[in-house]
Design goal:
The protein contains 23 helices and 39 strands. The protein is α+β, with helices and mostly antiparallel strands and about 900 residues long. It has five domains: about 40 residues, no CATH class; about 100 residues, no CATH class; about 220 residues, Rossmann fold (3-Layer(aba) Sandwich), CATH 3.40.50; about 140 residues, Jelly Rolls, CATH 2.60.120.380; about 120 residues, Immunoglobulins (Immunoglobulin-like), CATH 2.60.40. Helix 4 packs across helix 15, helix 7 runs antiparallel to helix 16 and helix 8 runs parallel beside helix 10.
Length: about 900
Amino acid sequence: MSQTITVVKYIVAHQHFWNGLNAEIMRMTFILTLFLSTYCFAQKFPYQNPKLSSEARAKDLISRLTLQEKASLMQDQSPAIPRLGIKKFNWWSEALHGLANNNDVTVFPEPIGMAASFDDTLVYKIFNAVSDETRAKYNEAKQKGQENRRFLSLSVWTPNINIFRDPRWGRGQETYGEDPYLTSRMGVSVVKGLQGPADAKYRKLLACAKHYAVHSGPEWSRHELNLNNVNPRDLWETYLPAFKALVTKADVRQVMCAYQRLDDEPCCGNSRLLQTILRDNWGFKYLVVSDCSAITDFYTSHKVSSDAVHAAAKGALAGTDVECVWQGYAFEKLPEAVERGLISEQEINKHLMRVLVSRFDLGEMDDDALVPWSKIPMSIVNNEEHRKLALDMSRETMTLLQNKNNILPFNKSTTEIAVIGPNADNEPMLWGNYNGKPKRTITILSGIKSKLPANNVVYDKACDLVENKVTQSYFSKTIIDGKKGFKAAYWNNRELKGDVVATDQITNPLKLTTAGDHEFASGVKLVDFSSKYETEFEAPETEEIVFKCGATGYFELLINDASIASYNNWRTLPSRIPYKVERGKKYKIEIRYAQLNNWQANLEFDFGKEVDIDFSGLINKLKGVEVVVFVGGLSTLLEGEEMPVSYPGFKGGDRTDIQLPEVQRNCLKALKAAGKKVIFVNCSGSAMGLVPETENCVAILQAWYGGESGGQAVADVLFGDYNPSGKLPVTFYKDTTQLPGFEDYTMKGRTYRYLSSDPLFPFGYGLSYTSFSIGNAQLSKAKIKNDENIHLTIPVSNTGKRDGVEVVQVYVHKMNDNDGPLKTLRTFQKVKVAAGKTSQVVIHLPNTAFEFFDRASGKMAVAPGEYELWYGNSSNTKDLKMAKITIQ
């Protein structure tokens, strides 16, 4: 600016010169001079010049940084460096199926449901929409002067491409299923949608392939688990293909290393994974980020490092570029590691080069005028087009598993129907995990009601998801200072100190949230606040009562000034705290709460007496109703990431039993005994052991976690307004006895590729309201060289009375391969066929479809020999036809 002022003074001082020029020339010259002087100032250093390559700019900027500043830029919450014009930057945002931890965004179905669509074209469209919404939210925050914060940045740690090898894993819902090829196809579409066109100057976002590698539970041991017996074949054919595909086919800009150890080395300190395979073999040249506090685990859990200094050096030397933590960065110790000779500053520069190139590639350090993505407006967020995408995908996820006597679809002239179950009117269940909050959610109950007159639908929750008892609330029996309920006090800090900014009297069970920018009370900030709730309760009986609590943030429950429970959660999880009381005795109840940094605040609390469930009242309510839609299954309150709350059959977010929870099984039994025709809508993020349900229910619809329009999609399928075409992306086993040990990472006996016994429902299976016939395939060649491609022409006939969509699947089996997979998916194609018509489906099979692990070379290779091609509409042999091909 000082240079601009100097130029202006010069012009004024030489006014006599300007008076001799044409006025228009004077005006243009003046403007040009101002522009050039300002431009020259803005381009003072090479790193500020957007015409240079990101690499050249990064190299220049590195030369101007101190060692301490370099270390700070390798942290996921990187502070600003004002002297060089570097802004604060956060690496951690989530976009699993929509922008997470933000309100009023479009919430699409959970990834495991999207995998059931077998529609990677629609997946691309969805994540293109997600990246638009993320940029729009980011742009709005920037315009408001809000700093780049966690969960609203241009780096999104999506997709999760781990193989869902075991249905007990609670985070399997975040993946695209058990098959490496399906996961690869879906993952590539996710990355391309998020990052924008490959030929654009700036990336729209930076996507991230996680969690690298050989990771899929258990949640309870992931910080200490050592996998030292992983079969090389399993590594290369099952656990690595999706990561390779995202690196080599989608140009993914980030890879996240996992928590556990592989062959004694933590994944974030494993040079074989991060250097030899990722960079040397696959040519990955971008960022490796750590899972949160994975570097800290080196010395706190894995015990492979003595302290933070050693852990920082070990992680960086192995190939980790950015460290994410819950608290306390090890990477801030990198300068000390240099002093101790554990790592060189030149090595740190190498990592920082990748960090800064990534930021320059986003345009984050350039003027918004140069970055097209900075113009995306808020009007695009949850617009009609995105809502339609959410509904379209939710419909495509619907997977019909059973339909006895073709009871579905319903006739719309149905006089009366009962909709019951714990998930029937459950909005958060539909949102899945790692989710945002939509503007509106269509529950399954609402969707069904939209199809029939209101008085034709009977609703009852019927039972809890998992608990065999119900709680009679005692909240109304509390009193303090002569008033019913709890007395609440609020502070605008996290320490419950200083001036109270608000008080309240709460007479209903606590259910408070800052979602949607709602204050806990008037005058209370949305962040950096704390609260206290006090009351007294006189026990009506000598009995055991339970406190039902849930909080995102710090929560503590005190009875008579003694703490009986406390935790600090980053999401709201229900907890049950039993407590014995004596008749006539008074109990002081106090709750202390504090908002957790960077997280939405939530607080839920009730207490009372538990009583056994009796289904006789429900059956009596349903008298005269013949058809019952039971909407049950699981939710992210039961399956998820490293959850501290456990129920029978669940442990730390994982499952120990894959059956439907007992209380729901008992409810379905009671309904069948009462003569009801039960349609079971199962909502879950994982495969369920549903053997009893196949007997007690006439139809089963697997609805996953359907997103904001999940209820509409379910109703559209039930009433025939949409013909289901979803296919299972995971094997549905009969029960837990069919599974090997959870911590055993060998693939033997797992998934359709290695399962020798019959599953309940196979991978790739799903019914339609029409029927299809797969004809005999014609091969372009029966004998090929190992570098040749072939194609198959497969006639697909719709032999039913409705138009429908079929997913044609092609599997390959290498003959005389004793320890190889029974069959493995190598391609698929979704085809729409009109009723009574036949479509000739041409499917291309590249030479890599015949690539398997070669033990002699230790690499993937296409070997000469005989191969079987299995093609059809599920992985079950009875649903497939076979042709043979010879590779010479």
